[in-house]
Amino acid sequence: MTLTRFMTKNAFRNKRRSLLTVLSISFSLLLLTLMMTIWRSFYIDQGAPESAERLITRHRVSLTIFLPRFYRDKIRALPGVVGVVPMTWFGGRYKDDKPENFFAQFATDPGEYLKIYTDKAVPPEQMEAWQRDRAGAMVDVELAKKHGWKLGDRIVLKGTIFEVNPELTIRAMYTAPRPNNALYFHMTYLEEAVPWYKGQTGFFSTRVASPEAVAQVSREVDEMFRNSPQPTKTESEKAFQLGFVAMLGNVKAFILSICMAVVFAILLVSGNTMAMSIRERVREVALLETLGFTRGTILGLFVGEAVMLSLLGGLLGVLFASGVVQLLTRSPMGVGLTQGMHVTIPTQVVALMIAALVGFVSAFVPAYHASRVNIVEGLRHVG
Amino acid sequence: MPIPISYNIRNLRLRKGLTIMTALGIALTVTTAIFLMALLAGLKRAFVTSGEPLNVLVLRKGSEAELTGGFESATLQTLKYLPGIAQDNRGEPIASGELVVVIVLPRRDGTGEVNVTVRGMAPVGIELRPKVRLAQGRWFTPGQREVVVSSSIHKRFSGADLGDELQFGKGPWKVVGIFDAGGTAYESEIWGDVNQMASDFDRQGGFSSAYLRATDPVAADALKNRVSEDQRLKLDGVLETEYYAEQTKSGRPIRFVGFIVAIIMAIGSSFAAMNTMYAAVAYRGREIATLRVIGFSRPSILTSFVLESLLLSLIGAMIGIILMLPFNGMTTGTSNQVTFSEVVFSLRMTPAVVVTAICFAVLMGLFGGLAPAWHAARQDIIAALRS
Fold first, then answer.
1. A361 vs chain B: nearest CA distance in angstroms?
2. CA dihedral in degrees (B190, B192, B198, B203; nearest 10)?
3. A153–chain B nearest CA distance, Å
4. 8-state DSSP, A209
């Protein structure tokens, strides 16, 4: 019998206890992986390469104040700009106020939209059909699937910001590497229905030639409108999205404190189990020592056993996490923030490393004590 | 006959290390749950207490928030003389046409910029909100570029001290006073003269909303209906209390995340508690058999072990509550999904939150304790005595 096999046998000598420990650790690790995934997608992930080339220009004071449409040509004239498209958040209701029926709706210019958002793929004939029909809409394939829409279906949105209820025909469906469950329709349609919206837009989305041009162009845009009645704020698409995350409050501290609580919880659970199982084996330890095993080996055996259990829990947790993240990205409550989130391999590796480390630390103290037990006393010990 | 509870207490004390570690695990879960619930309770309070039952808020028809509303200022003259509006001591109707905009301010601690609501109002607007009290300085003077900020804005943003100048709109605004909003949604606002604001934000001749004070609750209801039903006005009237109750939905993302986190942690802790209880049962195989021989019935053994698990989880709940106490009253902010601006609120460990947390811990104890207790009660007496 090799030492590894001995260790494995010991780890599962009390099957129920090992199972409960592994399950308990796996739920903690699930949460930890989830938090790390959220952290990554908010603060580390730079998004699609196309996203790095896009800028969002909005009113300096607030996203809720509109910008004049003529800014579009001024921005387009700047060096390094590939294209500009005006976008307006429509914020309408579909069917009812239930969160599962919520999805993003934008009024935009179909002629240029797909030149800016090159990561969205649409069959050419559908694109043409959308551009031709003023009351036409383009929707995310995933959104269409969810609501059971087909090309040519008519849907009605109820305006909340704009006093109009657009009746739209679905003309095109796009697939995006990261589905955003949105609907796009002609801004001219909105303009005709809402007089005060004429010549206005919520924000501009600009594509620049290279990611390096982003900083330069944003500065130039803001500089150009600095002293106009409608000053602008331009930032990269990622920074713009992060602005929404920041609105949720101190998310960083929130995630960090949950992670701390979770790690501490695994430490307790794993430490508890090891303390229990080592206490039962004082006599065995003494026996092993009489057989000639060194203290180091015994220590290694116990620590290895704990690491094995917590790694197993970690593995399960990481697997569960992938499933939960899948569910979250489809949930209506995520409201766009969770879109495109997925558990990456580095995140999984880090989670497993944390699991192993916690297992190691938690077993060390009880195992050290066990390995130091006096042989004679150990043999006499009544467990 | 039931087994005395002191038996369980002594057992927990006997294995101190194990008890404390398990209880701490449960405590961590309880702490997280309390934290999230206290956040939501604070948020809810900020909205629920904001409305005055006699105030009727007038918005553009179809609009759900002041920010997306808007109507011509001439309309206010019609509104002012509707029946049922209370009058101040000079015989003027208590009605305020207001302008609401959202501006960006840098946080004092340098962690970025946040949207803040700026409200322009008539001087009578202050009278419409009796819960709001002046803490320092004075109220703004009509016709001057002066603002009064809420105490939490004063604390959280730079340039919001008495005598400072805040930069927004077309130039500087002098901070002349700090008000205490008493935990209402106004806790996140900056107030100034409506006419000055309108010219700064190019909104002359229009209001975002109007506030009307009714003479009594019946008049408030009638006023609300009259405004909504008048075809010429194209406006909606809502009771201020109803308006704010609707906005509590801003807490939905927190509730959603909080729910998932609490459930996952609770399942994890339940397994840990189960482990501890199984160990407790295993250690006491002979003891349990002895108890049976003496004459204690299976149900009483089952109850005793479930009680022990409950006791363990209650200790956890107590530690959790104590761990959370220092955070009670801590203020934080989230965005209001209706106005896109920041709502400031404080963590509130209300009795309801504490009771829910204890129930939550009890559930964990039950879930963790039932199976081991069942196992203990079903043990074969003879085999256990021999082991």
1. 15
2. 30
3. 26
4. S
